[in-house]
Amino acid sequence: MKVYGLIGYPLSHSFSKGFFAEKFAREGILGCVYDSFSLPAITELTPLMAQYGEELQGLNVTIPYKEAVIPYLDELSPAAAKMKAVNCIRFINGRRIGHNTDAIGFRRSLEPLLQPHHNKALVLGTGGAAKAVQYVLEALNIPYQLVSRQAGPQNITYSDITADVIATHTLIINTTPLGMYPHVDAAPALPYELMNEQHLLYDLIYNPAITAFLQKGADRGATIKNGHEMLILQAEASWEIWNEKV
């Protein structure tokens, strides 16, 4: 039996288990199982790996362990090393190799929506998910400003977002869990009333399908996109990595 799965905490919002179960059934993939492993602490990864041994072929990694998992790995792909964030682990020949397929999914789902005026971005959040977004924006030559609740050398705070910032940063990407089920009324503290049809709001959250962040933008005429397609694309990229010939 080949074992795959998802680690994170909590995992009540995860779609990955159902996605892979459907994929295995649809494509007639036998001898494979995909499970969710809710780990209250990243230290629990070690006994999990020991439990499954050589059966463990691959893991996806979600909040809050995309950065914390790195010390448990033997090697990083060039992209994951640059991002310093991992969402996909391949176990092969006794080695644990970290990859980042969030960047693949995000880029492939974002690019069709981009217009020439989407030439500056606000990235809400500075965690592991934000690293993939930054990586893609840099590859697309789109300058960005990080936003966090606390001031830092690399970021501004929500209170620093002026009318001019909103007017000039027409691409706004939420990488925080704000608004994720069950806290569906929560949203990043932005001056939504200043947004218009020039804006593109992208939320990495997919449950609910329309978060309060997206709804507030749509109410002002903005284009909106949730993280569902990104998830499908990154999951497919994970499967490609786990099964790539070496």
Helical residue percent band? 25-40%
Count of separate DSSP helical elements? 8
Radius of gyration: 18 Å
> Taking strands numbered 1, 2, ... along the chain, how are they ordered across the largest sheet?
2-1-3-5-6-4
Q: Provide mean pLDDT, rounded.
A: 96
The chain-level structural class is: alpha/beta
Spatial shape: elongated
How far is the first residue's CA from the last residue's CA?
20 Å
Query: What does the largest sheet look like?
Result: 6 strands, mixed
Number of strands: 12
Low-confidence blocks of residues: none
Can you write the helix and strand succession as a string? EHEHEEHEEHEHEEHEEHEH
Percent strand: 15-25%
Write a structural description:
- This protein is an alpha/beta fold and 246 residues long.
- The chain has eight helices and twelve strands.
- The chain has helices at residues 16-26, 45-52, 78-83, 102-110, 128-139, 163-168, 212-218, 228-242, and strands at 2-8, 32-38, 56-61, 75-76, 88-92, 95-99, 121-124, 144-148, 155-157, 171-174, 200-203, 223-225.
- The strands form two sheets. It has a six-stranded mixed sheet, sandwiched between helices.
- Strand 11 (200-203), helix 7 (212-218) and strand 12 form a beta-alpha-beta unit.
- It is elongated.
